[in-house]
Amino acid sequence: MFNKQKSVLAFLLVIGINVFSNAQNFKADEPIAVNQKIKKGVLPNGMTYYIYPTQVNKNTASYYIIQNVGSILENDQQKGLAHFLEHMAFNGTKNFEGKGILNTLQKQGAVFGKNINAYTSTDETVYNLDNIPSKDGGVVDTCLLVLHDWSNFLSLTDAEIDAERGVITEEWRTRQNAGARIYNQLAPYYYNNSLYADRMPIGDMEIVKNFKYQVLKDFYKDWYRPDLQAIAIVGDINAAEIETKIKKLFADIPTPQNPKKRFEIVIPEKAAPTFKLALDKEISASNITFMVRHTAEKPTTNYAGLETATQRALAFSILNNRLAEMAQKQECPFKSAQAGYQKYTRLNDIWFLSVSPKPGKQAEAFSAAMTEWVRAYKFGFSKGEIERAVSENISNYENYLEKLNEISHKQVIGMVKDDYLNHEVIADPNAEFEMTKAILNNINSKILEEQISKLYTAQNRVVAVRGVVNEENLTQEKAFDIIQNSENDASLQPYIDTFEGKTLLGNLEIKSGKIVSEKKTSEIDATTYVLSNGVKVHYKFADKNKKQVNLEAESSGGTSLYLSQDLPSAFRSTSLAMMSGVGELSNVDLEKVLKGKIADSYVAISSLKETVTGSANVKDIQTMMELVHLRFVQPRFDTKMYDLLKQRLQNSLKNRENDISAKMQDSLSNIVYGKNNPKIRSLDQKYIDDLSFEKMKSIYLDRFADVSNFEFYIVGDVTPEVLKPLLEKYIASIKGIKRKEKFKKEVPEWTSKKIDRDVFIKMETPKSSVNIAFMKDYVYSHKNRILNSFVGDILTLRYTESLREKEGGTYGAQVKGSLVKDPVTKGGIQITFDCDADKVEHLLPIVYQEIDKIKKGEILAEDIEKTRTNYLKSREDSKNFNSYSMSVLSNYFEEGYNRNDPATYENIVKSITAKDIQEFANSLLDKADSMEVVFKPLK
What we know:
The protein has 939 residues and is of the alpha+beta class. 41% of the residues lie in helices and 18% in strands. The longest helix is centred in the last third of the chain and has 25 residues, at 782-806. It is globular.
């Protein structure tokens, strides 16, 4: 069955009162039917395999090997080696020497870190090859051979081990931020000093740097074996053929003799509650987590288990709706809060309440959240709350069933992992829904109340506080007093549901307009409707995503039309409108009205344009159109929401005080654009002080005053017969003033043509952060845009080999090449990476050497081919989704070209030569503005 904590259905299988009159009756021990689409088997050597055919991504397949092995299995001399071994899987195997796996699959368009990756946790290690071409039998055989080698045939050469030590050290350095340091302080309390507290996957860097080769090889021999491994192949494949290949190829992996027992760790019981306040100088936002540990429940395999999971999911979803509603009030002391019950380790689950207080409000925030939790488990939930939750989740479940053929590869793999590692059933969704109907017929507030109250036990309690230096942090005495007072509050009353049967449009009367003309564009199979108010609507039918409709509308102008002092109000005006609700409904009431409907609409104002977007299931397309109509004719502006917005910004400003990333970001902006650049408004006190409720309202009304200046694009599984009346009623009815606007072509200039700065900053974990960029006015064309991307992606390949693999100097360098058309055409390259502060001066010349090689024409043919193949494959993959049709539509009418025409992309990509790349790099980088800003630790 789908894991109720992790899967898509975790929040979909929830519930109502007598929703289905013809529900079947099930016995408690009746098993959940298994999904017959997935083929599962076990080889004689103990290896498990799963095969799931699907055409959600045509002509591609994904290949996974799931190791029931993680850092929890390490001994004291191996801390970090489970993760180290994961890295070594990409550094040589029996059939793929050195970087053979990467080099082979990159030639098929795969990208390391995206299509080729892995992760290690405490209890599992998972390797993946995602979306690899599947119609070439040789490629399929290659991917299976990779899984085969990962299982039992890693080379683990001394040289490759030594080369990887530096890479992992830099990964640790990159990840060793304030959050990681706080977690290390709290882990002994979370796990009651069990082995989990001392087995973080990244490990001990002294061990990583110095372990003897045999120690790693021993870990590999002990734990990487077929009885602890499952392989999964998902995609556009022939299941029978794949199964035959698996049985033949993996037969040579030996059955382990006298294997070590794969042990599991239970967190020890603890009667007395524990408390820990953790502090770090770089933390500026507090968090409180109250948890109660439980012995893990049995996997959900039958009706009784499904019933329990379903009831809990409903109860916690309603409680979290209450907490979210509270957070939308300025007087609420927390920014957000959430409660739930979930799997924690193999042998333990947890109930939790997580609270993010506003600055200086830790005690009040914890008290407020605790009060709502106690109110829920003592008094249950109102009829209206349950009915809305039922409506929402039934709608989501039905939507899921309609789109079973669109389940992504990763969703399927999630089910496979839960089946293999946690023994959850991969359920037949239709059969499971039949069981859910029976559960829905037997639900009430008392059942929900009882279901969650029994999770709140007196044993194994932990309160963990991420505190802030120089703030009044929650103490143990205060925390325990709050818990006790909340539990014994005799004045506590049941929740009062004030929502009454409101509707989206309320009393609004709409006078429909007309479609005055329609024109076919056969080149892209689209239709343009001109409405009586001057609006143009471009429509294209697309059913790659069944029952889905998307709308985009945009108008030129944006914040570029406003003065510097008005920019904060301009940028935040749509945030205020979205927070305020729409029409006669507050945002809280709007969310309740929309329960049970799959439809939404958003507005935004960027620097160059204003946009309205919408999406819906076809059955709820009218609701989406009503929302879009209201965004224009009845936007809402609530002074209380304005006060809350300012408060949130003030809190964010406070939270930036100790945030190293924020300090670097602000410093970089000041260096590049100047501290008081009028067009660069970063968050500071002046930004907040410049906000004005009336100005925000007037800017919104101005930007969305002329619907006729908006171009609409609608794509989806909707017919013209359904769409046209909706356009006439909800879009043609909006009054337009038929003005013509264009954004202003004002671009903030850099402070200098050549910027070279070292910035010293105090940090807890010393590292250097490198920021290099080149920028130049450049002619925009399809070919130039593609060439700019080629340069960036080829540099990524080069830096992976030089900076990461050869030097062990960084976990990874990010390179982006981009050419933009508006507001002025500019091309550029940006390079960023973190590294050891002591190595930065050695690594910087290598960055420029790789750029110089491209300028000299020293470009590896295989790098060009890897990049070319990736671009062509990515373009083909994108055609599997409606979003591609939306881009075809907008590109044609907004940019003036046919995305389907190979001449605009595929033919160019295929024609690119080393000389093209060399000439482009020299042309772009010659006399370009340059920037090198390196952040270094202040000693």
